[in-house]
Structure to design on (543 residues):
């Protein structure tokens, strides 16, 4: 196992090959949410995914998280196929791909105190001890406190309930939960779009710092080209379920960009 | 503190709780309270007026009416509790599985529930009494056979709406098994609505058992079930109406207190009326 992992070192962390997903709706035409989407994410990289509402960004993240199944196409994490996994094998890959959802309010169970929500992944994987939690792992509450500290919250937040926290604080809790297993890939599906504008930059800086500190890879989803540019090494542009453009962030203003990319950047230039 | 406040806010709920507490007390301690054996027939003592020996008088067979009523509380509440628990134990897992697993299983289960669940309990109970004979066991089985479906349906509809929410998706991504997700996130969500449903149903079930026993299709003499006691007293209604008034009042009180509690629970737990 270790050998194969080492030989994969140079190969991408995530490979997605011709992924498609169609939703049939109750009335009328089926929606092609994803069509022939292919890309990869390298280790330690932040890949930005930008596109307007309804372009299929969340659909892609749900497929990568094995919350839904694609109609066709393949996904590989460290060369291991994600398709059709169930039971134990699915649980194994889930350790490596975690998520921060858009709406921090909906993402936390209102009935659980914060520390229980933060510990949920670690409670499900008693055998996992990320290096940064090594000294506190035996004690659940200390582990939760350490995770909160890493996202800028205080021990006094441990026993609060979600309704006693602000939106930004809730999103920090969700981020703490997302990093708690030290996944290789953290999918951030519009992590700042439910937050006050004044908080967005703070949250992005936190994500950036954690990425560097823990050596994570991100799939950073947003419809805001400015935050995408700030966060990402490379950028994918999606329109109506297809990837229409793909480039390193520093070439975002290049003349070769797709017309749709130019429209997105024109608004903020 | 909080509870006390909400009780003061709604005196009717408090009344319901007080009545039901009294009944539960009678159920638990009945055997030590009753002055006489509820089944002993004494033809020499028949149709006695109230006295120290017989607080509510005696019936047409000389049995102590008070003792029979207290014994009846035990039977009534005991049976209703057994039915409700059975119904919840069947309905909740079926609704959870149907809603969470979905697919073919869900289609089949919901087809059964939509088809059979539309039948009124008493129609089923009468048919069962007709085919398998009138007795308490058949009556209870018929009620259970219909009632679990309502619970399955309510639980399923809650699971269907909750399972798409991000906290449940996050729990799945966090590596929780289906059972973990249900236990940690879904079951706590369904408990309040199920409690309200159960409180409402207890009143209905008590009525149903009493009604069938009154018709001679449920509890059989000499069991001091309240519906059966109503039936026993029927021939004497002109001369000794107490024989029917006491059990009738008892049924009324317990059903009213269940409904008051159900209303209070619904307000307090903020369950959307469905
Ligand atoms: N469960 C579903 N059933 C039917 N259609 C769906 C379903 N989920 C998504 N869709 C449709 O698929 C398309 C892509 O949706 P998706 O949520 O992936 O968009 P998005 O890019 O994340 O948009 P937003 O920026 O608003 O979050 C939309 O047209 C949407 O209506
Ligand atoms: Mg989305």
């Amino acid at each position: 196992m270790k050998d194969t992992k080492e030989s994969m070192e140079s190969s991408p962390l995530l490979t997605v090959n011709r992924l498609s997903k169609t939703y049939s709706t109750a009335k009328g035409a089926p929606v092609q949410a994803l069509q022939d989407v292919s890309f990869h994410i390298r280790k330690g990289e932040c890949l930005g995914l930008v596109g307007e509402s309804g372009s299929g960004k969340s659909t892609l993240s749900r497929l990568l998280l094995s919350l839904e199944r694609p109609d066709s196409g393949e996904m590989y994490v460290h060369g291991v196929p994600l398709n059709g996994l169930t039971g134990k094998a699915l649980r194994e890959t889930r350790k490596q791909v975690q998520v921060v959802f858009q709406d921090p309010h909906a993402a936390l169970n209102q009935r659980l105190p914060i520390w229980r929500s933060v510990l949920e992944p670690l409670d499900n994987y008693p055998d996992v001890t990320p290096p940064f939690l090594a000294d506190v792992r035996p004690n659940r509450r200390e582990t939760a406190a350490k995770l909160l500290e890493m996202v800028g919250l205080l021990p006094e937040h441990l026993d609060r309930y979600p309704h006693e926290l602000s939106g930004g604080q809730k999103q920090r809790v969700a981020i703490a939960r997302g990093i708690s297993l030290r996944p290789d890939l953290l999918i951030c599906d519009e992590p700042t779009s439910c937050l006050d504008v004044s908080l967005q930059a703070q949250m992005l800086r936190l994500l950036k710092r954690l990425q560097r500190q823990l050596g994570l890879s991100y799939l950073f989803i947003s419809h805001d080209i400015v935050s995408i540019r700030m966060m990402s090494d490379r950028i994918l542009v999606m329109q109506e379920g297809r990837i229409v453009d793909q480039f390193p962030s520093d070439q975002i203003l290049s003349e070769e960009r797709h017309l749709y990319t130019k429209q997105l950047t024109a608004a903020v230039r | 503190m909080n509870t006390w406040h909400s009780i003061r806010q709604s005196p009717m709920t408090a009344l319901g709780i007080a009545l039901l507490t009294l009944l539960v007390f009678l159920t638990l301690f009945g055997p030590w309270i009753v002055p006489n054996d509820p089944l002993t027939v004494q033809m020499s003592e028949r149709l006695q007026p109230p006295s120290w020996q017989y607080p509510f008088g005696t019936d047409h067979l000389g049995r102590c009416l008070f003792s029979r009523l207290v014994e009846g509380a035990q039977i009534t509440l005991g049976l209703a509790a057994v039915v409700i628990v059975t119904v919840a134990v069947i309905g909740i897992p079926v609704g959870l599985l149907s809603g969470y697993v979905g697919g073919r299983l869900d289609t089949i289960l919901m087809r059964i529930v939509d088809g059979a669940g539309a039948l009124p309990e008493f129609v089923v109970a009468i048919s069962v009494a007709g085919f398998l004979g009138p007795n308490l066991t058949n009556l209870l089985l018929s009620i259970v056979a219909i009632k679990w479906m309502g619970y399955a349906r309510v639980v399923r509809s809650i699971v269907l709406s909750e399972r798409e929410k991000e906290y449940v998706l996050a729990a799945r991504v966090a590596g929780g098994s289906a059972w973990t997700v249900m236990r940690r996130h879904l079951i706590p969500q369904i408990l309040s609505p199920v409690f309200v449903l159960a409180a409402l149903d207890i009143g209905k079930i008590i009525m149903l058992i009493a009604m069938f026993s009154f018709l001679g299709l449920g509890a059989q003499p000499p069991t001091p079930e309240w519906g059966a006691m109503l039936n026993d007293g029927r021939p004497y209604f002109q001369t000794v109406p107490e024989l029917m008034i006491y059990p009738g009042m008892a049924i009324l009180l317990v059903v009213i207190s269940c409904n008051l509690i159900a209303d209070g629970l619904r307000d307090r737990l903020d369950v959307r009326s469905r």
In short: Chain B is about 75% helix and 0% strand. The pocket of magnesium ion (ligand 2) is lined by residues A 57-58, 189-190 (CB under 6 Å).
